[in-house]
Amino acid sequence: MNRSRPLNLLPLRNSPLTPPPAPVPPASQTDPSVGSTGTVGQASAPVVALTGTFLSQGFRNTMNAQAIVAQLGNYRRVSGAALKGMVSQALPAEERQRPDEVRGTVLVTFQDGAVASLSVESENEQFRSFLRDQIDWSLLPAPRQFSLPISRIACTVSVSNGKIRVGVGPI
Length: 171
What we know:
The chain has five helices and four strands, in the order H-H-H-H-E-E-H-E-E. The protein is an alpha+beta fold. A hairpin with a 2-residue loop joins strand 3 and strand 4 (163-170). It is elongated, with a radius of gyration of 29 Å. The protein starts with 26 loop residues before the first helix and ends with a strand.
């Protein structure tokens, strides 16, 4: 492919919407003694310059979404560990050793970084009252502390055979 002649597909060459002409490759890239691939630093320089020029809002939004996903993972890990600690401290040892599994889901709504409301669901009335009354939900980290744009989370807690399992996720 001949790179010395630019391919002119747009008739509006002097229009403000047309991109600037491609940079002329350095002399070392056209020198046959350099080799077919050229020098890495010299070959990547025009690409880096053009990439910086054409950063779009879509690219920035994608990077923002990736940061949110990473922060959500951090939030799940930290708040899950905090919730598991709160449940293990508040739950008596004999209740942890029960052979049948008890499970509950707590929907937590945060407002201004604090717990605004709770909704506890469980088939076991005793476990439902335990989750509602014995756990200090104000100690659960708010999503806002992790720069997350969510205000409601669902926490699932299950206990059986001495094991406590927790899960935290946005809703």
